[in-house]
Amino acid sequence: IAHIGIIYFVFIIGLEIDPSSLQRTGKYAIFAAACVMFPFAVGAISGKLVHTYLAIETNKSSFLTFLGVTLSITSFSVLARTLTEHKLINTNLGLTTLSTAMFIDSWAWILLSMAFSLSSGNLPAIMWTMASGMVFILWSVKVVKPAVLWVSRRKQKGEVVGELSASVILVGVMVWALLADAIGINAVSGAFVYGLMIPYGPLGVALIERVDDFVEGLLLPLFFAICGLRSNLYSVSNVWAAVALAMVALLSAAAKVAACMSVGYLYDMPLNDRFAMGLLMSTKGVIEMVILKIGRDMEVLSEQAYSILVVMSVVVTIAVGPLLKLATTSNRGQASYQRRTIMWPDPNSELRMLVCVHNTRNIPSMLGLLEACCPTKRSPVFVFALHLVELTGRASAMLVVHDTTGSASSSDPQQLHKVPLGRSRHMIQALESYAQRAAGVTIQPLTAVSSYSTMHVDVCGVAEDNCVSLIVLPFHKQPTVDGDMQVINPAIHSLNQSVLANAPCSVAILVDHGLSGPHAVHHVAVLFFGGPDDREALALASRMAEHPAVSLTVFRFIPGDDSATLPSMRRYGSNYSDEVLTLEEDEENEEQLDEAYITEFRLKHVSDETVVYTEKVSNNAEETVAVIRSMEGIHDLYVVGKGGGSSSPLTEGLTEWCECPELGPIGDMLASNDFNANASVLVVQQGMQEHEMAAGMVEESPRKPR
């Protein structure tokens, strides 16, 4: 029964691999070749000594081939789950590793078939088995694949795969396993070839739905139990030979790391990424257990060798997790990309944005904001559109990457059919339609499936791994028909706060009040009180001002004479100390940076009639609120900084009435039901590492805690 489970499990693995993708790039093939040849050579060379000491009776060529295949293979399914757990699936490291593992899985079965052929030791039998295997594969391609494609086309036209068709295909797995076993290349290889013939699409999803839970939930655990029962460490009589074989297994893992380090150097991969990839390629799992069991059944491996290799597989796989976490953590700490903010010396460089959406209602407002950012071929915008889906039911957490053809790939293809991607496809179509019409816009659709408690990790991970400068989040409230703001999901509120606290770059929260469609934004207002968040908001608005259909008004609030001397004594009284003096020095530095950036902004737009700069004098919060209320009904979009005015006497007392602290005092007031203006609000928080440009020079200063 366990053997039947393995046959269907390997069939599912073959079904998940897209043979056409193996032809699209050569980089992964080079990685795969190095990851196979290096450990295969280590196993083959070192195995000569082990073969003699462990008293293995089978011929040496077959043993060396089996040992080399066992040490060089990578478990595709375990690797996918490891990448998902470490949030690496959408990184260059994750995509490269998965594609390389796909190559290795395909090559490993060819090498394994050669090992089966060599096990007989009879040259005519070897030639007959290899020739029969070639005919078997060709027959599968010419006969089985066209028939399966015909069934698959029916499925794509909307016809459900019936019980009879599905049963015939699944019974075909056993038939191909029997034929492969009869010609001498093992039943498991036949099931893998049969899985390759079936395209992973609607038909493949339907087949996986029928057998996945039964195979992985019931049959596969039986196989692992049998592997454990057949392992007998008491059978190891030659300790030195056992140590030698364990060292061979460790050396093969080190050889994979060395292979990835060498090839990665040729492709200019970061050092930590190369090391992490080597660790990932050393991952062992079900497939290696299958090969070891087959080798034991054919008596290619002795009981001692089998037991030692099973234990070493477990040891190596356990060691991969902590080492990988160390490597990726170190890598994320060191790989700080330069452009973490919108403020940047080169305004024409590409702006990379991560736009998050929860439902279709978020799409029009996000497209309106994207259009307002004035993407052009000279100043392009690269958008990562991330659809956030709550983890429910039987699905597992994953990050799904969509391509332009509408197909989706995931770190865990076996769980992909359990994820509701219907809404994602509608959103992707809207985004792609806009990208085709607009110049200078590139959109990469993604779907993140996870619980709301950990969803911020996915958002921040995608932003950091793709060098994003700005994350745009939808507000957790949406307007109703009568104009009030209604909470959509309280978990979104917590998600936005977590992203703001952990984001590696600038973050903006969009409060939508009809900001929909291209060319929907016409009148933009910036309320500038000072500070890094307000400077970041002004930088984004400055980019919007380049749009020919957008008019920009910048309101700078300046303390009046009555408030100029109040802050220090009012806030600190008699506790005026060195700490207060230091704080005042920091405030003076911020004021200098504000003044420098305002001057630069005005010089940039001095000849632009659509950009208006005005100063508003205010002495206290009441006057500030009155000035802002006088703007009601004039502007379509307000752009404000999250921390704007939070420590200013002009807004003193407003923070205590904040219903949504993540918007800051000004943003919260603009988004409240009390503010009657039917205008959208964009609240900006600058990234943790700001790059300032004052007086023509870039100054780096760490973000000060508030």
Automatic annotation (TrEMBL):
Domain Cation/H+ exchanger transmembrane: 2-325
GO cellular component: chloroplast envelope; endomembrane system; membrane
Key word Transmembrane helix present: yes
Protein's GO biological process: potassium ion transport; proton transmembrane transport; regulation of pH
Domain annotation Cation/H(+) antiporter C-terminal: ranges: 524-686
One Pfam family per UniProt: CHX17_C
Residues passing through the membrane, by range: 28-50, 62-83, 95-119, 125-144, 164-185, 191-208, 239-267, 274-292, 304-324
Membrane topology: Multi-pass membrane protein
Protein localization: Membrane; Plastid, Chloroplast envelope
Sample GO molecular function, one term: antiporter activity
UniProt superkingdom: Eukaryota
Limits of the Cation/H(+) antiporter central domain: 381-521
InterPro entries in UniProt: Cation/H_exchanger_TM, CHX17_2nd, CHX17_C, CPA2_transporter, Na+/solute_symporter_sf
Sorted UniProt keywords: Ion transport, Membrane, Potassium, Potassium transport, Transmembrane, Transmembrane helix, Transport
Job description of the protein: May function as sodium-coupled metabolite transporter across the chloroplast envelope.
Family statement: Belongs to the monovalent cation:proton antiporter 2 (CPA2) transporter (TC 2.A.37) family. CHX (TC 2.A.37.4) subfamily.
Name this protein carries in UniProt: Cation/H+ exchanger domain-containing protein
